[in-house]
Amino acid sequence: MLLADALRLVAEGVFPARCIGCERRGTPLCDACRRELPFLPDGVCHRCGSRRGARGVCRGCRRLSSALSSVRAAFVYEGAARTAVLTLKFRSGRYLAPLMGEFLRETLRAHPLHAELVVPVPLGPRRRRERGFNQSELLAQEVAALVQGTVVADALERRERPPQQTLTAVERMHNVADAFACPCRRTVHGKRILLVDDVVTTGATISACADTLADAGARRVSALVFARDL
Ligand SMILES: [Zn+2]
Ligand SMILES: [Zn+2]
Asked: For residue 53, how far is its CA from the centre of ligand 2 (angstroms)?
């Protein structure tokens, strides 16, 4: 066993659940912090979930692929919601998946949706190896039953790409656009698909995933994320 893994296992035993809002031990979310969660404000765009522009022009929609029919988010990416996203990236934070799933299901119940396939946004092979799990797959498992779908974790493949920070804005767009491949087109063809990710910032990643699935013949692609930048 690697030393890092050993330390992590120890940490999981020593540091059980902590509140994502106030870090109090013993609960993943205390009652006081539950009331303070950064839910999306009223009046966000129905399609992309971001704030509309001054004249009703939605910048968020313009940045999304036309292959995406909608992006639903439970929270704004700030405060306790941001802490939850960052914590779930660690093995020791996996206890948060059921709690995050509870809010994702609530979001879906507000706007019901059916999908035959539930597809997590994949990690690149190197990061997947390092982390040992894909946090978006944990979230996908949490909502599959509600949309009456099956989780297909390998519907998309993410190619290794140079880190975004090393590239210009234009290079970044191309870098993301061809980062995904669909190795099982037959599975995807003609299906309604729900893409699941932990967080959306620019929408470039989720758009690239939707384009890849649409190219493979998906009938409809929607997305569900735990948190998004407004
Ligand atoms: Zn708290
Ligand atoms: Zn919009």
From this structure: 9
Quick: pLDDT tens for 57-94.
788 898 899 999 999 999 999 999 999 999 999 988 99
pLDDT tens-digit map of 148-164: 999 999 999 999 877 77
**Distance from C-alpha of 118 to C-alpha of 171, rounded to nearest angstrom:** 30
What's the rounded Cα separation, in Å, for the pair 51 and 117?
Answer: 29
CATH 3.30.200.20 fits 39-228, yes or no: no
Contacts of 18 (CB under 8 A, 6+ apart): 24, 25, 28
**Nearest bound ligand to the CA of residue 19:** 1
Which ligand does the CA of 23 lie closest to? 1
Ligand whose nearest atom lies closest to the CA of 31: 1
Residue 6 contacts residue 192 (beta carbons within 8 Å): no
Please tell me the distance from the alpha carbon of residue 13 to that of residue 91, in angstroms, as a whole number.
Answer: 12
